[in-house]
Amino acid sequence: MNYFPDEVLEHIFDFVTSQRDRNSVSQVCKPWYKIESSSRPKVFVGNCYAISPQRVIERFPGLKSITLKGKPHFADFNLVPHDWGGFVYPWIEAFARKSVGLEELKLKRMIISDECLELISRSFPNFKSLVLVSCDGFTTDGLAAIASNCRFLRELDLQENDVEDHRGHWLSCFPDTCTSLVSLNFACLKGEVNLAALERLIARSPNLRSLRLNHAVPLDVLQNILIRAPHLVDLGVGSYVNDPDSETYNKLVMAIRNCMSVKSLSGFLEVAPPCLSAFHLICPNLTSLNLSYAPGIHGTELIKLIRHCRKLQRLWILDCIGDGGLEVVASTCKDLQEIRVFPSDPYIGNAAVTEAGLVALSSGCPKLHSILYFCQQMTNAALITVAKNCPNFTRFRLCILDPTKPDAETNQPFDEGFGAIVRSCKGLKRLSMAGLLTDEVFLYIGMHAKQLEMLSIAFAGNTDKGMQYLLNGCKKLRKLEIRDCPFGNAALLMDVGKYETMRSLWMSSCEVTLEACKSLAKKMPRLNVEIINENDQMDVSADDRQKGREDVPISDTGRAKEGCARVRVDFIGEPAELDPQLRASLPTFLFEEDIHKTEDNESPIELSSGQKSFAGFFNKAK
C-alpha cells in the first residue's frame, strides 16, 4: 500500500541514482515497479543480447540515456572472433521507430556504422551526448553527420575506437550556431584534422571543459586553443614536439599560465621531453595524470614532472618509470587513490618495475585503494607488506609477465601473499592474480573475499577444487574470467544454481568439454551459453545442423550458442520476450577452446604466445 501520491514517490526516486538501487526499488511492490519504470531516465544493459530493444522501450517509456555493452573485453586482445556480433543498429532503429526521446548514448565494444550515426543524428532532435569506447565499423563521415545535425550536442567522446579516416573535414561540419560543446575527445583518430575549423569551434564553445586532441594538433595550434579555452578542466595534449627555446614554446608557456583550472592532464602522444617544463606550472593543481600513451616521457624529465604533482589522486604511467620513480611517486603523491603501471612493451617480458616499487607505493600512499601493476617479479613478503599497508584496497590487479613464475626469493607459490591481500582487504571487489598459484589460494579467496564481484585468473590452480572453493565462498561474485587453468566439467557443473546470480563467466583453454557446456545450457535455460572454437572444428552432429535446433544454433563460422533465454537475431530465430521482472542483463557464459596455448621458449625474456595474450588478459582498455 502506498502512503504517498505517485508524484511524491516519483520525486523521491529521482534522488536514487544507482542502477542497483533503482532495481531494488522496482522489486518492492507492483506500484513501485510501475512508478520506477515510468520515471527512470537512464538504463544500463551489460549485454546487448540479454534483452530486446522493444522490451527496454516498453519497460522504460521515459528513457533518455542508455549504455550498451557488446563484445566481451577479450575482444580487445583478439580472443573473440571478429564477426562475433555486437551491432547497435537494431537498437537505434527500434528507438527511432518508437520516437524515444534519446539524449545520451554510450557504447562499449559495439559495431556502429555510418548509417547508424546518420540515423541517430536525424531521429533524436534533442540528442546531446555520444560516447564510443572500443567501437568500430564507422568512419569520419559518420562523425560528420553527428556534427552537422545534432544541434544541442554537449559531448562527443571517442575512446580507443577503430575509425576509418576518410578526411579531416568532419570538424568543419559543426554549424556556426553550435556553442553547446562541453566535452570533445578525438585522441584516437589517426588522420589529419581541419585545424582552422577546430580553433573556430573551440572559440565559440564557452562551456568547453574537457578537450583531448590527437597527434595531428601541433604545438602552435595548442597554444591558440589554450588562449581560447582558458577554463579547461581536462586537457589531452596531442603532438608536443618543439624547441624549448623557440618563440612558439614561449607563447605556449604564457598560454598555460592562464589555464590554472586544469585538473586532469593526458596525451603527449608525440613529445619532446625538454618541453615538458612548460606544464610544470599547472602540475600543482592536477588530480589526474595519464601518461600511459607517452613512451617518449621517461627518465629525469618524468621524475621532474611527478615531483610537481603533489595533489594527484589518479596516475596512469608506463613501467619505464622504474622502482626509483615509483618511490618518488610514493614520497610526493600522498593523496594518491588509484595507480596503473602499464608495460612499455607487453610483448617483451622485461618490465622495469619489481616488488620494490609496489611496496614503496603501499607505504607512501595511505589512501591507495585501486591498483593495476605489471611487473617482472614479485614475492610473498612484498604482498604481505602491501596488504598491511593498504587494507582499503577495493581493486587489486597484479600481472607478473611470466605467469607461472614463483616467489623470486623462496620459489614458493604466491598463495600466502594473495591470501594476505584477501584477508586484510575486507572491501575488495575486483581481483586479478598472476604467478604460481595452487588450489590453496582459491580456498583463501572463498573464505575471506566476501565482497568480491570480479575475479580474473590465469595459469593457476591444481584441480577442480580451486573453482569449487571460489563458487562456494564468493556469494557476491558477478564476473569470473579463467584462462589456462585445470578446471573441468566437475567444477563447472557442481552448483549450476550459483550462475543465476552471476553476470558472466569466461573459460578459455581449460578442461571443459562441449558436452558439459550442452549440459549446463539444458540445466539452466535462462543462461546465455556460447562456445567459441578458434579452429572451427566444433564437433556438431549433422542432425543438429539440419534441424537448426534452438538449443544448438550453428553459425556459418563454426560457433555454437546454446540454451539462450533470448536467441540472438544475428544468429538464428527470433528473440524470446523476457519477463518484465528480469533484470536488464542476463548472465553470459563463454567457453573458448584450443587458443593461445603457451609455447616453449628458451629465452628467459621473450614471451611465448600464451604469455603475450595473458598480458592482454589483465591489461584492459585504458
UniProtKB/TrEMBL annotation:
Pathway of action: Protein modification; protein ubiquitination
BP term (GO), one: pollen maturation
Gene3D superfamilies documented for this protein: 1.20.1280.50, Ribonuclease Inhibitor
Domain F-box: 4-45
Entry keywords, A to Z: Auxin signaling pathway, Developmental protein, Nucleus, Ubl conjugation pathway
Pfam families tied to this protein: F-box_5, LRR_6, Transp_inhibit
Domain of life, per lineage: Eukaryota
Keyword Nucleus: yes
Gene Ontology cellular component list: nucleus; SCF ubiquitin ligase complex
Sequence intervals crossing the membrane: none
Chief site of localization: nucleus
Localisation: Nucleus
UniProt xrefs under SUPFAM superfamilies: RNI-like
GO molecular function, one term: auxin binding
Matching InterPro entries: COI1_F-box (IPR041567), F-box_dom (IPR001810), Leu-rich_rpt (IPR001611), Leu-rich_rpt_Cys-con_subtyp (IPR006553), LRR_dom_sf (IPR032675), Transp_inhibit (IPR041101)
Protein name per its UniProtKB record: F-BOX/TPR REPEAT PROTEIN POF3
Organism of origin: Salix koriyanagi
Lineage: Eukaryota, Viridiplantae, Streptophyta, Embryophyta, Tracheophyta
